[in-house]
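Quick question about two entries, pasted in order.
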Amino acid sequence: KLQITYDDDVSNDQFLKSIDELKTAKEDCKKFEDENKKLKDESEKSQKEVQHLRDDLNASSKDSSKKLQSMIEDNEKKEKLLKEIAAKFQIKDDKFSDDQLLKSIDESKTVKEDYKRFEDENKKLSVEIQQLKKELNTSKDSVTKLQTTINDNKKNEQFLKDVFSKFTEISANDEGSSEKLLKSIEELKTTKENCKKIENENAKLKEEDKKLIDEIRQLQKDLITSKDLTTKLQSNVDCNKKKEQLLNDLDWENN
């Protein structure tokens, strides 16, 4: 059993030593089995912990991925909105900047109120021209009143240039804020174009008023001696009718 040839030459000590070694080996084997079982238990526990960590990591990764995707989509929406705003103001991509965009918005903010001012001023100018029409056959006071009206118009024009205001901001957190903002900008842009037309018409009226003053002064010089006074006065009256019609048409278009 011990792989020892038993004969007279084998000593008792060697035999006992072999038995002791077997007993020790048996005890060591039992110890190894216990340790192996313990290691297996620990290994299974570690594997479960690793799997749990992997599950947590996967869940965290999916959650982070969703948040990242949401941030990317939100950023894309904001970039799209900025590009659409830049397009409204005809700002090229290579020249687009936050300051330029804000400046364009600030310039457009004043247009709506300026447009209303121009409407009021043109209505006022129309009334004044009507009054001038009645004063053409009067004395020197007609010319003085006309000059006063022209000076008032210049002051009003300067006042309009100094008018600036802001419109109420639309909160970015409101539902449909992008559409509201684009709609407001589109309205301001349209108003600005209409305002430019009124400015051009106003400039024409000023030029015609200047010509009218010159004609009135000439008529005053020729009032006693010229036989053509009536004809010239009638010509001025017709000219004012055209201006009145132009302003009426302009008021109709603006309304």
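Here is the second entry:
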Amino acid sequence: MRLSKGIFVKIALLVTLILLASLFATLDFKKIYGILGQANFFWLFAALNTLFLELILKALRLKALIAPHGKSSLKDNLIITLIGLPFGTVTPGRVGDFAKIYALSRKTSLSIAKGLAIGILEKLLDFISLLIFAAAGIAALFFSRRLNFDFSYSIFLSFFLLAFLVLFFNKKFLKKTLNLVYGKFVPSKQKARLQNGFEEFSAVMSAAFREKTSLAISFGVAFLLWLNRLLRIYFLALSIGITAEFIYFILLIPIIELVEILPISIMGFGTREYAYLLLFSIAGVSKESAVALSLLTFIATAIPFSVFGYVAALKEHSLNNTENGNTENSSLC
């Protein structure tokens, strides 16, 4: 039985409220407020600067993925990237980021199907680089004897990652799974209209593996994006007095990111805070400091991106209306 959207939202809201109530019952929120109130502005400023770098890197990656199919300017790619950010923030699994596909289609003359394929490629590159960072962090902690777990776990993780990469770069496997992926990500209202666009979708995914330079650049940018995110959270941690070694951030943040995008709570609230609380205890960080870092990360990332994204979306919508009005007036003349 498939859950309706309304029931799913109610369940997510219930989970969020239960988790937040549990946090309120076990934490000293006056202490958390005090930690946030004493944040160092130098490190906050350094963290906020990484937001601009993230936007530029995402725009460059989008440009590299579009390159085999058409031309696009860095300015247009920045606008397209901004439009997807607020929708990604408020939707489970950040799938709302696909809202930018319509802007991508309009600004580049690519079809919706091609835009969708490029959007999915971005997500895949992010996910693969996330897994690699997580594996690297676990291996580093294990070999430095800071993490006590059976060596067989690291072998299993390495094997899983290798198998995933082999399958990802296998054209036959990719082709067989395209139909499943296409059906999963295309909104149900659009499926009938986009049915004929599947060949275009498949062509873009296949072309990505033929264009080695474009794919290599996109992969490189995906790694830089994760490194930039890790640095941002590390700077935010320093701003509130958390001095855990950077290696812990390489290990823990990718795992927290995976937990945060699970579609079981509203905007990741509750699940994100518990993930920070539990995982950063490995690095000796107090519960209040860990939750303060979680809240500060959300405030310093999601809010600025959402504000700038909504401004870009409204401006683009206004521009579209103006252009449509001019077109209608021209046709009347």
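Reply: The chain has one domain: 30-317. The chain has a mean pLDDT of 76. Hope that helps.
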